């Protein structure tokens, strides 16, 4: 986990259902790992949020293209979360619990890969 007062982590989506809570399966799976998503509300990755970021981590190449198209100056600050594993991370929305568990593990592993590079 990244425990630094100098770092702020924000979540936003390219097709977010703005204001909606996290999927119930996501909440349940995250809780098993000690994360509380019960207060999470979806928001759209809009330009004002993106331009202040030093780093924008995305799940797929399509997400990177979406950001680049809308905010071209971010090109050097957009990276795949799975960059160090050369993998994209699929969206488990609409799938069964096993998909959410697999994606959570992928995200956890990929975040761990980034941590030494952000310290």
Folded structure, characterized:
The chain is mostly helical. The chain contains four helices and two strands; from the N terminus they run H-H-E-H-E-H. It has helices at 24-32, 47-51, 61-70, 97-118; strands spanning 56-58, 78-80. Helix 1 packs across helix 4. It starts with 23 loop residues before the first helix and ends with a helix. The relative contact order is 0.16.
List keywords for this structure.
single chain; 119 residues; mainly alpha; 4 helices; 2 strands; 5% strand
Quick summary:
With 119 residues, the chain is mostly helical. It is built from four helices and two strands. Helices cover 39% and strands 5% of the residues.
């Amino acid at each position: 986990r990244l425990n630094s007062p100098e770092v702020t982590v924000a979540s936003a989506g390219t097709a977010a259902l703005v204001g909606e809570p996290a999927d119930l399966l996501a909440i349940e799976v995250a809780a098993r790992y000690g994360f509380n998503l019960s207060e999470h509300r979806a928001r759209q990755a809009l330009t004002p949020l993106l331009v202040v970021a030093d780093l924008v981590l995305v799940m797929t190449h399509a997400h990177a293209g979406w950001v680049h198209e809308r905010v071209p100056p971010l090109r050097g600050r957009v990276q795949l979360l799975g960059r160090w594993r050369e993998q994209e991370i699929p969206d488990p929305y609409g799938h069964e619990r096993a998909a959410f568990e697999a994606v959570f593990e992928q995200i956890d592993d990929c975040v761990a890969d980034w941590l030494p590079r952000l310290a």
